[in-house]
Amino acid sequence: MKRQEKLTNFFSTEPGTVAEGDLQTSSTQQDGAESPPIIETLDECDSNASPAVKKPRLAFDPMDIGRFVRKSSSLHAPLTEEERFKALTDCWKPDEHYQFPKVLESTRTRAFQHHYLVKWPWLAYSEMHGGGAFCKYCVLFARETSDQRGPNFLGVLVAKPLNKYKKALDILKNHERCQYHCEAKGKAEKFLDWYNDKVGHDLRNRLLAAREEQVKKNRQGLVPIIRTILLCGKQNIPLRGHRDDGSLSAVDGNNNDGNFRALLRYRLDAGDRLLEEHLNSAKKNATYVSHTFQNEIISTIGKIIRRRIVAEVKVAKFFAVLADESRDVGKTDQLTVCLRYVGGEDNQHVVKEVFLKFSDVEEKTGSGLARSILGVLQEEGLDIRNLRGQGYDGCSAMRGSNKGAQAEIKAVVPQALYFHCASHCLNLALVHSSELAAIRLVAGSVANVCAFFSNSSKRTRILQDQIERSNSSNSRKKRLKTLCMTRWVESHQAFIAFKELLIPIVQSLLELEQEVGETGARSYELLSAICKCQFVTSLFIIESFSSLFLPLSVKLQAKELDIFAALDLVDNVLLVLRRRREAAIDGFQQILAEVTEVCDSLEIDIRMPRICERQLNRENHPADSSEEYFRVTSYIPYLDSLIDGFISLFADARQGALKVQCLIPKFAVRSSVTDLHPAIEFYESDLSCSVNVAKAEFERWRAKWMEVPQNGVPASAIDALNHCPAADFPKINILLRILATYPVTTASAERTFSSLRLLKTYLRSVMGEARLNGLASMSILRGIDVDPEEVIDSLASNARKLDFVL
Question: Are 382 and 354 in contact (CB under 8 A)?
């Protein structure tokens, strides 16, 4: 058997001394005297250190590489094997937020850079010796003299730190090619191999290796269980059954023990050896397939997902909160909390809106909702001082200016501005316009007809047959859509579909009218309501505007949309409404032409109602023709109501955006420095600079876009942020980040209630908050991958019957 090499074979025994200064030549040499490496004490800091600007330190890290620098004195004891090994593998390394001291060189100040440590792994930074860089390999294993002839003792990076950085890159590149560095690197690698081989033969480590193997097997057995829960959670598959306890092998044909246990048996049948070995070898009270441990895994997965989201938010710093409240099938009031912030994706800034969690609400007042929202944020580790926006619907408990939730939160965080959901504003504008009698009756009749057909499969089949036989089936609409109060897009689609399918609907009602009983009577009532020229005209008027509002409603719900882009979309639609108002005569003539064609097919006469001196139940405007009557009583009032609603309901958002829109390049070129003054004062704590500094930076920012063509200028906050380097425009970058977090709609919060209705059904209406949030996080945020090993590490923090960590 080959004899193991001695540790001393790895080190040079050449005589000499080590100088404290830079690379220099000494005229004296100690023959036969060896300078062993020593650990430097705290009082041995170099008196000739570079004049770095630094704060005094009372103590240095125990693994600072400066403690291992060799000295000329022979009074110090040599390093032990353990010390050399720790110095190589566990040397102190500054984190990415560490501020390196600046060194004055001539008339400029320079500092050590983080990327040096990444590019040259052998490099280590020391706070000792005045601060500077060392080569780990050369400090521990290099010989005493350099490659040149004569007594040239090693200095910079070996005995003296590199603390002048004007030519740092050249020095580091040259050092990496030096012969003595290559020799030291080889000795270090041999030493690590020797040390690890030595440790591996220790009896204690053999026992440790056996325990490691057992821990590995325990963890492997738990992975299939976690993956099964992840599958069910992401696909929204219920896990538990009527009775889900006992052994997996004990299958009762009359008892459904749930999808989770069924999927585990399916894995066993498919040949999952790891799961089979775990279930066969583990004790009966340590198989970890019970519903109790299932809840722990679900809760842990939810916490891991939320930790990742919170970590991203902390990197972004500023965020906005989106919240809404709804009652679930278990009669519990659930508050959903979502976050909006600026994240990174493909080296670009993007706006993200993500679900955080549900929270049970007991007090639905403004103060109670505010406490719940702030409590959720603080519970997840978010700093509410960085809250810069609130997005809610228009209920008084949320938007109240005195006692609403937004007012209560603004009392705590004044910079957390409130924005009324733009989709709710659009919906309210349509609702207010529906106060006209003709429009309101059409909406009610459409809802009644849709409900009449949807409540019977026979009626639905008759309607489908008429649609297939009808000549008007050239359109893509093949079925009716019900009016939905929460899904705004479907409300627009309902009128569009009803208008295109009006003829098949009337033909179906005529067929159903022949039946005896309630169906025939109800069909007659509906026919009497919709086979009137007033109904058909109003329906076509509503449909002409629904086609305009449908794309706006869809775009407003986009997560990446910011407040400026949203207002731009609203202004475009408002401009179209105003142009239609100016050309009301021509616009209504086109609608009436379509109405006339449909009425001729349905044999409906187009005529205006009788005019009388006093009328209370309908419009009674004098007119010379039916066209003029319907234009004056329906088209123009509906159009005026829409314009007034758009102006009034979006006024608050427009007023809040006007204060800071000068930061957007599209508006910056037409703005002055004084326009930015309100924003600078409002966000003074975030900018941490004087007003003049911020104004000077804005002047440079505006000048950047003055010569750019108008079509190439960013028109939104997120686009402007992607063209605003933080190094060049630090204050503008901060303000743009805040503006990008302004909420536009609460659509993301509304969507979580759709997932909630799938999670809590009448079959599983009772569910704890931790389990609910875990399942909701997996279902809603299925794009976030969770590593089972990370779940096991988190579960192992509590005492277990099996060992999952060393």
Answer: no
Check whether 331 has a pLDDT greater than 50: yes
With a cut of 70, say whether residue 732 has pLDDT above it: yes
Separation between Cα atoms, residue 617 and residue 642, nearest integer Å: 23
Task: List the single range of 27-36, 266-275, 459-468, 764-773 with lowest mean pLDDT.
Answer: 27-36
- Burial environment of residue 27 by CB neighbours within 10 A (0 to 12, 13 to 18, 19 or more): exposed
Q: How far apart are CA 446 and CA 498, in angstroms?
A: 7
Sign of CA dihedral 527, 533, 535, 540: positive
Do the bridges between strand 319-327 and strand 387-392 make them parallel or antiparallel, or are there none, so unpaired?
Answer: parallel
Q: What is the pLDDT of residues 229-257, one digit of tens each?
A: 999 999 999 998 877 777 777 666 677 88
State how far the Cα of 76 lies from the Cα of 37, in Å rounded to an integer. Answer: 8
**At 740, which amino acid appears?**
A
Beta carbons within 8 Å of 2's beta carbon, 6+ residues apart: none
Residue 325 CB partners (closer than 8 Å, separation 6+): 333, 334, 335, 336, 361, 364, 369
Structure-token pair, residue 422: 């733009």
> Please, what is the Cα angle at 359 between 354 and 364, to 5 degrees?
115
**Other CB atoms within 10 A of residue 112 CB:** 23
Give me the phi and psi of 354, to 5 degrees please.
-130, 150
State which H helix or E strand residue 32 sits in.
none
Chain position carrying tokens 């081989």: 197
Domain borders along the chain are: 7-200, 202-420+756-806, 426-652, 659-740
Nearest to 12 by CA among 124, 125, 137: 137
Structural Rg of the chain based on CA atoms: 37
DSSP labels for 518-535?
Answer: HHHHHHHHHHHHHSSHHH
pLDDT at 492: 80
Q: What is the pLDDT of residues 733-758, one digit of tens each?
A: 999 999 999 999 999 999 999 999 99
Q: Which residues pair with 133 in a beta bridge?
A: 125, 162
